[in-house]
From TrEMBL:
One of its GO terms (cellular component) is cell outer membrane. Keywords: Cell outer membrane, Membrane, Signal. Belongs to the MipA/OmpV family. Transmembrane segments: none annotated. Pfam families: MipA. This is MltA-interacting protein MipA. InterPro entries: MipA (IPR010583).
Length: 280
């Protein structure tokens, strides 16, 4: 029997270290991390002999593609490559294309993680309605995640602050559940709600006077609050101890002031992805 453990990612897109849901979006690379058994609960790396040290490293490389909206709120879909280089150590450190995560505290099912990632921003060339609005710059995100694992469930809350870019503060609350279906297949689901501050909402959903004049869109002021809700499901299959295949699908729903923005063409934001990874 092949034994493996699922580590679900929570990011919308790769907008932050494992940002759910969405788009993706939460980090797909992290979904490929498996372990033969769960290490004991720790709050930091214990002293290890060389052989034990090497055995607790996890490295996965691979790639795939996603099919999702060209921008948040758009209806035009695009195919994007997904490069995967995922490095984990002893269930307390994870580095992947979404960013870096480090477990600061772990006691039983409760854990606190520090997060460092990025917000990719947005180009006005991503959609017709964005022309004249200018670009939203790239930014670095720093935050913290607190979660509680109970059996196959995880309940969590996340706060991420963007340095540069939108300068936004984004919070997420959600739950995930994963289960084995046979010896080689794991299915995981997640449900997540995103709350954004006025900086984030202004950057991605507001239209000021200058932008209105340049784009022809009406002026609009998006307020802070609940911004979107996401549901995701993924299936990861281990062909053997090394090769892993993952298929994922999800849908996000823009709500509140985000949904009412004049740049939003479609409130429902679907996505699908397929990735192949090799575990060393």
């Amino acid at each position: 029997m092949v034994k493996f453990r699922h580590f679900a990612a929570t990011a919308a897109g790769l907008t932050g270290f494992v940002s759910v849901g969405a788009v993706a979006h939460r980090s797909l690379a992290a979904d490929f991390v498996f372990r033969d058994d769960a290490p004991p609960a720790i709050s930091g790396p214990p002293p290890l002999e060389k052989e034990a040290f090497e055995s607790r490293w996890e490295v996965i490389v691979g790639g795939g593609a996603s099919f999702e909206p060209a921008y948040e709120g758009g209806k035009k879909m695009k195919i994007s490559p997904i490069p995967i280089v995922s490095i984990g150590y002893a269930d307390w450190l994870q580095l992947d294309p979404g960013g870096l995560g480090v477990t600061l505290y772990k006691d039983g099912g409760f854990n606190v993680d520090a997060r460092l990632g990025y917000e990719p921003g947005r180009s006005e060339g991503d959609g017709d309605l964005l022309k004249g609005l200018g670009d939203v710059d790239f930014g670095v995100t720093a935050g913290i995640k607190a979660g509680y694992e109970w059996d196959a469930f995880e309940f969590y809350g996340i706060i991420d602050k963007t340095i540069g870019g939108s300068k936004g503060l984004v919070g997420k609350i959600g739950t995930s559940y994963g289960w084995h279906m046979g010896e080689r297949l794991i299915v995981a689901t997640s449900l997540e709600a995103t709350i954004a501050d006025k900086n984030y909402m202004d950057s991605y959903f507001s239209v000021d006077a200058a932008q209105s004049a340049a784009s022809g869109l009406p002026q609009y002021k998006a307020k802070a609050g609940l911004q979107r809700v996401d549901f995701d499901i993924s299936a990861t299959y281990a062909f053997d101890e090394n090769w892993l295949l993952q298929a994922g699908a999800g849908v996000g729903l823009l709500v509140g002031d985000a949904a009412n923005s004049p740049i939003v063409e479609r409130e429902l934001q679907p996505k699908v992805s397929l990735s192949l990874g090799y575990r060393f």
